[in-house]
Amino acid sequence: MAKSDTAERILDIAEKAARTGGYNAFSFREIAAEIGIKSASVHYHFPTKEALGEALAKRYSDHFFSVLGDPQGAEPAELLKRYVAAYGAALKQDGLMCLCGVFGAEIADLPPPVASATRAFFERNLEWLQQVHNRQGLAPDAAEQAAAHMIAALEGAMILARAMGNAALFDAAVAGLS
Amino acid sequence: MAKSDTAERILDIAEKAARTGGYNAFSFREIAAEIGIKSASVHYHFPTKEALGEALAKRYSDHFFSVLGDPQGAEPAELLKRYVAAYGAALKQDGLMCLCGVFGAEIADLPPPVASATRAFFERNLEWLQQVHNRQGLAPDAAEQAAAHMIAALEGAMILARAMGNAALFDAAVAGLS
DNA sequence: ATTCTCCTATCTATCAGTAGGTAGATAGAT
DNA sequence: ATCTATCTACCTACTGATAGATAGGAGAAT
């Protein structure tokens, strides 16, 4: 196995906590307790908290884009529907925020490697969406605007829906997007 | 004076920290140190952290809506421009996130009174916008959708712009809104 | 086969730092 | 005298992190 089972479990537990309450919401002790090991053993897999945070953001980003697939693949309209659905699934299936949305909100207080991995997530989002919008015939400027707008609306819709405790608000907020 | 000068300074410092890194980013000790008093003295003005957090969200909300004014006042189009500008100012003048945007992202981990005050902010936003959209002739359902969409896009645009370290992305993301 | 060596993954025990919070004293103003 | 706002001094709980020990398995050398 490339990554040990324990390392994956650490990431799973940390991700859930981070997507609930941000970077300060997961701790080595709590993760360890949930797995049934000692906090020192968590440090064996991830030497520092920022290393764990960085791994978290990278894994989240990779999973996210593996779901979306190639922006040059399926029909643009289908890809955009898939994109909106991916955010909706994160909210409704997991019942959690987008990891990088939470990290993005507190980015100025994150350790540089974590902030950087978070930035990379949004950078990849912008690129992916711009490619899809280009295929729809939008000019580069318009494609960038449309991409930024979609990301913003989706991240914000998650916050709004969670803050109000009303998942239907997510759908209302993104109704016109795809 | 209704609120002592010290209490206002406490709120100012806490707000800045919270809008940078969330609820866990401000502490009684740091606030006290910045003012030049002891942390026990901060507890005199706000007995608990959740009381401070609640006061923070309420003051932020009140300031915000006092800037916006009466939704039945100026022309709807003008009000919407003002609404978008209020978010833009929070980002560009203060260089910070929307307080309730940050709190909203981590709402599931906030003490109930803070979560409640955060929810109230979004509730007020929805109501204010719905009134304005109603005046523009939108049906109730469409007005609610439009309101949710605007809030989402603006909160998300702040996150995106800050995460990417590029304030122009905010403008790009909200270009079509008002 | 047995022994030696190395690696993985965990443990115990501990550290310094910081968190929020409290009790009780005190100086100064009303 | 009382109230306001601060102080000193302390508590318990938790944070991330480290040092050093240990058990068990894998592979190589004898």
Structure in words:
Two copies of one chain form a homodimer. The termini of chain A are far apart. Chain A is built from nine helices and no strands. Helices cover 74% and strands 0% of the residues of chain A. With 178 residues, chain A is mainly α. The longest helix of chain A is centred in the last third of the chain and has 25 residues, at 140-164. The model of chain A has no long low-confidence stretch (mean pLDDT 96). The first copy, chain A, has one domain (50-174): Tetracycline Repressor, domain 2 (Orthogonal Bundle), CATH 1.10.357. At the A-B interface, helix 6, helix 7, helix 8 and helix 9 of A face helix 6, helix 7, helix 8 and helix 9 of B. The structure holds a DNA duplex (30 and 30 nucleotides).
List keywords for this structure.
homodimer, mainly alpha, Tetracycline Repressor, domain 2, 9 helices, 0% strand, globular, DNA-binding
List the helices and strands and how they pair.
2 copies of one chain form a homodimer.
Chain A: H1 5-21, H2 28-35, H3 39-45, H4 49-68, H5 76-92, H6 99-105, H7 112-135, H8 140-164, H9 168-174
Helix pairs in contact in A: 1-2, 1-6, 2-3, 4-7, 5-7, 5-8, 6-7, 7-8, 8-9
The first copy, chain A, binds a DNA duplex (30 and 30 nucleotides) through residues 4, 6, 24, 27-29, 37-41, 43-45, 47-49.
**Largest contact between protein chains?**
A-B, 45 and 45 residues
Radius of gyration of chain A: 17 Å
Q: What is the terminal separation of chain A in angstroms?
A: 39 Å
Helix and strand run of chain A: HHHHHHHHH
The domain count of chain A comes to 1
Helix content of chain A: over 70%
Amount of beta strand of chain A: under 5%
Number of helices of chain A: 9
| Main β-sheet description of chain A | none
Judged by helices, strands and strand pairing, the structural class of chain A is: mainly alpha
- Specify the CATH homologous superfamily of chain A: Tetracycline Repressor, domain 2
The CATH architecture of chain A comes to Orthogonal Bundle
Identify low-pLDDT runs of chain A: none
Number of strands of chain A: 0
Question: Could you name the CATH class of chain A?
Answer: Mainly Alpha
Mean pLDDT over the full residue set of chain A: 96
Determine the oligomeric state from the structure. Answer: homodimer
What is CATH's topology name of chain A?
Answer: Tetracycline Repressor, domain 2
> So what's the overall shape of chain A?
globular
